[in-house]
Automatic annotation (TrEMBL):
<dbReference type="InterPro" id="IPR050196">
    <property type="entry name" value="Cytochrome_P450_Monoox"/>
</dbReference>
<dbReference type="InterPro" id="IPR002401">
    <property type="entry name" value="Cyt_P450_E_grp-I"/>
</dbReference>
<comment type="function">
    <text>Catalyzes the formation of aromatic C18 estrogens from C19 androgens.</text>
</comment>
<dbReference type="Pfam" id="PF00067">
    <property type="entry name" value="p450"/>
</dbReference>
<comment type="similarity">
    <text>Belongs to the cytochrome P450 family.</text>
</comment>
<keyword id="KW-0479">Metal-binding</keyword>
<feature type="transmembrane region" description="Helical">
    <location>
        <begin position="82"/>
        <end position="100"/>
    </location>
</feature>
<dbReference type="GO" id="GO:0005506">
    <property type="term" value="F:iron ion binding"/>
</dbReference>
<dbReference type="InterPro" id="IPR001128">
    <property type="entry name" value="Cyt_P450"/>
</dbReference>
<dbReference type="GO" id="GO:0070330">
    <property type="term" value="F:aromatase activity"/>
</dbReference>
<keyword id="KW-0812">Transmembrane</keyword>
<keyword id="KW-0408">Iron</keyword>
<dbReference type="GO" id="GO:0005789">
    <property type="term" value="C:endoplasmic reticulum membrane"/>
</dbReference>
<keyword id="KW-0560">Oxidoreductase</keyword>
<keyword id="KW-0503">Monooxygenase</keyword>
<keyword id="KW-0256">Endoplasmic reticulum</keyword>
<keyword id="KW-1133">Transmembrane helix</keyword>
Amino acid sequence: MDLLERLRSDSLSLPPLAFCLSLCALLVAALKVTKLVAAQRKTVRLLRSFPGPPAHWLLGHIAEFSQDGTEIDRVYEWAQKFPFVFPLWFGPFVAVLLMHHPDYIKTITTSTEPKDDFVYKFLIPWIGKDGLLVSRGQKWFRHRRLLTPGFHYDILKNYVPLMADSTNIMLDKWETYANQEDSFELFEHVSLMALDTIMKCAFSCESHCQTEGGTNSYIQAVYELSDIINTRSLVFPYHSDVLFHLSPHGYRFRKACKIAHQHTDEVIKQRKKALKEELGTGQKRYLDFLDILLCAKDDEQQGLSDKDIRAEVDTFMFEGHDTTATGISWILYSLACHPKHQQMCREEVTEVLRGKDTMEWEDLSKIPYTTMCIKESLRLYPPVPSMARKLTKAVTFADGRTLPEGSMIGTSIYSLHRNPAIWENPEEFEPLRFLPENCAKRSPHAFLPFSAGPRCAKPVHHHCLFPCQDILEKNP
């Protein structure tokens, strides 16, 4: 009994465990807040030479975005008030210096600065850290070197019949709407066509997504992932991994990731098996994107791991279908709004076809006016409206202002393409801007529909041309 009483007395003299834990948590939180405040003050000092729109003390400029699709226009308004560049605050601690003039942009696009983690980290659970979009350093250089042959013209030529086939499926569906008064959402059809094309060209896979619609679980997962990533980037609380993980969106995201990864793993497994069988029988066919990934070897005859291949496949699906579908949809919108230009394109395409069902690769150089119309649409409505980088070293811009290592910088491509200092009457649809003699007068960094420099997106320009010419030729 004496021992028990002594232990009880000693325990009463000790601080309660809960109090100790609370005190530790408070100290850790205080230290974290102190570091954040110090970093915030440092960022404010660094950006003092870059004037910009006033920001809310807590929400930054997020309070100015109503999430109704007008965010890009709001940024464009600020770009007109603050020439060249201005800071954009996402909350109290994260700031991005947003550029919209070629003299600033060329400083970044000519370098290999990595993508900014703040913007692209939401993609990593789906596409991983090893794909070209988010990887960095030697891994990025190695992957780019191994993947570049997959976008050679000799490879892309083989895709022309496949692109035409996917476009014709979409046009057959549109025939059912031709004699109806009801409107329909164009982008949904174009997006499915783009996915169908990528599945055929990149993976030799017949997805039937255009005819089966929402019954394809993989296609559903790709749409779900793209939509949730966009939602997460706009909802400030979802920037926290913990809050997002606990949310309904987080649950749906993990479920869609699992479906997408299982599908990709199975496609890679089956293709490896098929390549072995073809090697054994001596059969040959055109190489698709997945074949090139599987067969790629570096100077030391080392290939890509299964993890690397899955990352590149998932990256290709994410980057490829959305940008292509968005670009084509806006091109069709622009031509619909300008029937005179549409008619000139149709006459040009019809003249080149001369009774053929579809264009061939060599015909692309014979439709200069259509090409200029496509570029003008991409100028007004760039599929990639912005991009972001994180500096790995200090940079000095043309006007002498500097930013240190670790700073986040972005490019508003939408504002760049409508910058009145670069483009005369920037709001007007004027394809002749892209005559060779007019292009020669502009900076090569004035038109960046798919970014530029070493980290630019692989060109989607030709992927836009083939569907557009089919639509122009078959829908008078």
